[in-house]
Give the backbone structure.
Amino acid sequence: MNKIYKAALTIILVLSINLSFGQSSVLRPQIAEIAKSAKGIVGVSVLGLEDRDTVNYNGNARLVMESVMKFPIAMAVLHLVDSGVLTLDQTIHIKKKDLPKTYSPLRDKYPNGDVDVSINDLMSYMVSQSDNDACDILLEKLGGADQVEYYLHMIKVRGINIEASEADMAKTPEAQYTDWCKPKAIIQLLDTLYTGNVLKPASRDYLNKLMVGATTSPNRIKGLLPAGTVVAHKTGSSDTNAAGLALGTNDVGVITLPNGKHVAIAIFITNSVADEGTRDLVIAKIAKAVYDNQLLKKYK
């Protein structure tokens, strides 16, 4: 019996399908149907943080991260805070050259640079407002993308690859493809943050607060959920190129359910030719289907 079970489990993992998640025999086809409207590659991974039930749809696909990469960068920064190497009150002197022309509320506030900004403020800009310049300043403080990779490997998370900075991607749009992840890997990272001990409780709560306060793309995971639902999330978005292709439209995070339990969800749309409103709605519909599925479980 054990051999049969192990063989069946292997097949399930290879296909990125786990049918243990509540009404997953209904949920996964729902996701597949919703995904058609995206006119691109859709990857979804879901994990109930308390009950450990999962669902995956293209969960092992390598999909463009966009600004979702700021989530693992934030964790790497907080690891150094926990280790005593950095402090949130510590300031970094920012010059005008550190503020290239990309999306940056930080640059909007300090267009000429020559200012000292705390790591706490840079983290807020990067996570809550998805500021690209703040991201690259913190990435440089870490020692570059290799140090983020080192941190991820140290906490045994594989399937996340970061090579390009935001400035790199602004100069060479094709570089966006070098920052990729598997949806299942992002869920693993969310899981380690919320249920593991990779960060101290104060750092975990701090990052959670920044993600709950995210102001970007409210029509994605949060779009169709009941008003007041708490979602700690990080979005990622590309522009649409001249060929009408959007390389990445993403949202990942943790939804707090009415019963106090939590579900981690990662939704990525890569190489889509649908318009932005349709892409956002695909993410919102998938998140709502997951939310409703979790609520149904209490009646089982």
User: Anything to note?
Assistant: The longest strand covers residues 246-256. Strands lie at 41-48, 54-57, 63-64, 91-94, 115-118, 160-161, 180-181, 231-237, 246-256, 262-272. The CA atoms of residues 48 and 263 lie 4 Å apart.
